[in-house]
Amino acid sequence: MNSSRALKLVVASVLGLGGGAVADGAIAGTSTCTGSGCWVYPPFLPNPGGGGGVGGGWGGGDGSSDPRDEYHKISWCTDAPGYAWDAHGCDLYNPPVLTVNGCGTAGGVPVPDFLVAPGALQGGAAAFGAMFKAACDAHDMCYGTHGNDKHQCDERLRQDMIADGQQKLGGAFPALGVFVIGQATAYARFLQWEWIEPWTSQPAYDRSQMDAACRTSSAAFKNYCDHLGFGS
C-alpha cells in the first residue's frame, strides 16, 4: 500500500469515528461479476448523510454534512479495484483499449476487406480497394460496446457492407452489385453459423464484451472516485 492511499485510509477512519458508528453493509457499494464481466455501482444510501429527505445516492441535497458520507466514499473507492475485477483481468485504472482491424482473420485465415468477384470481374472489383474495411471496423466497435447483442452486430455488418459497397460502386458497375450482397450475406451467416460460431465469432464477442465491461466499470469508478484521488 502506498503512503498516499494509507493516508486516505487514516482520514477515512477519523471521519468514521467522528461521525459515529456506521453499519458494515452501508460501507461498500454494489458490485456484480458474471461470466461476461464485472460492473461497479457506487454506494447507495437512501438518506445521504443521515439527514431528512430521500436522495438518489451521495449528495442527495438534504443539506446535511455528515462526515460518514466521506467515510463511505473513501472506503468504497479504496476497496473497489480489489473486489473481483482483478480476478477477471480488469485493471480499473488501465482498462483495455478498444481497437479495430478491419475484417481481420477467421481461424488464422485473412478475411478480405475488398470485394471478391469471379474471373474477369475481379480486376474491376479490385479497383475499389478495401471497400468493406469501414463496415468491419464498425463491427469490431459493435462487439466492443458493452451490452450490445452479438447477432444484431452481425446483421448490422451485412447491412453496412451492402450500403458501403453500393455507395462506392455508384451504379457504374451493376454486375458487381450482386457480389456485394452475396459477400455481405456470407460474412454475416458465417459469423452465426451454428457449426462455427461457438469456436470463432462467439469467443471473439465474449472477449470483446469482457473488455467492454471493464471499460464501463473503469469509467464509473473514475467518475465516482476521481475527486478523492483514486481514479487516476
UniProtKB/TrEMBL annotation:
It comes from Stenotrophomonas lactitubi. The keyword Signal applies. Gene3D superfamilies: Phospholipase A2 domain. GO terms for molecular function: phospholipase A2 activity. Residues 1-23 form the signal peptide. InterPro entries: PLipase_A2_dom_sf (IPR036444). The keyword Zinc does not apply. One of its GO terms (biological process) is arachidonate secretion. Keywords: Signal. This is Uncharacterized protein. It comes from the Bacteria.
